[in-house]
Please model this.
Amino acid sequence: MLTFKNRTALVTGAGRGIGRAIAETLARQGVTVICVSKSAESCGATAAAITAAGGRAKALAVDVADGAAIAKASEELLKEFPVIDILINNAGITRDGLLFRMSEADWNDVLTTNLTSCFHWTKLIARPMTRARWGRIVNIASVSGVMGNAGQANYSAAKAGMIGLTKTLAREFASRSITVNAVAPGFIKTDMTAGFSGDAEIAGKILETVPLKRFGESSEVAAMTAFLCSEEAGYITGQVFNVDGGMAM
Ligand code: NAP
Model:
């Protein structure tokens, strides 16, 4: 067991995949979890599963690509939870294509959903954290933002941007005992990668680049993320942790 002192967390993209695993892992550690996703059905299902397992959760449908919607949701949330101690910026999308074929809409959608959302959530949720003088922020980046990946100019730029944001905010918030770290997953079995992991030929090509020769599990990303949110990780900030089977050594 890790140590969590009656904490509340907000996890974006908690409806499926990695975000759901993070929400459930934190809830098992006694953390109250606000589960955010685009559709009410998916965050509702995660919150219901947590509650059924004896944990505490609230579901909230917010489009993280909409800064005004984030502002409205945060204002309401902070009335109910005066301090949200842990923020996990996990919601993300891909719109892959080689640069010459990439539309401006695909560029903007990926930057807005993956990166600009972190700016909005952090600005609103971190202010009460600074007053409480304790906080944990974990941004779910990607190995694509660390190494680059052909066909993902928009996504790797967004994820690299999240890493830069992580390092800057780690410096800005350190004096308030708020740590800010990034987790960079490799190929994890979720809906996002179903097109790759479900196709034997594509999966084989991908696994040639993964020293551990398998796709990762959402629970493996969640375990690292939960550790970074615990009391035990209080001396770790501004770092990027690859959970990628050894891809980005
Ligand atoms: P996923 O299975 O596709 O789930 C994405 C989650 O994000 C869903 O809950 C979805 O909400 C939510 N979301 C997407 N757009 C949103 C929006 N505009 N507003 C609110 N919520 C939104 O993805 P995943 O594979 O778990 O990925 C989670 C994170 O890890 C992403 O940031 C991704 O870039 C990163 N990552 C994943 C991998 C991988 O191999 N899977 C590798 C590296 C990094 P709904 O459920 O309502 O649709």
Notes: The chain has a mean pLDDT of 98.
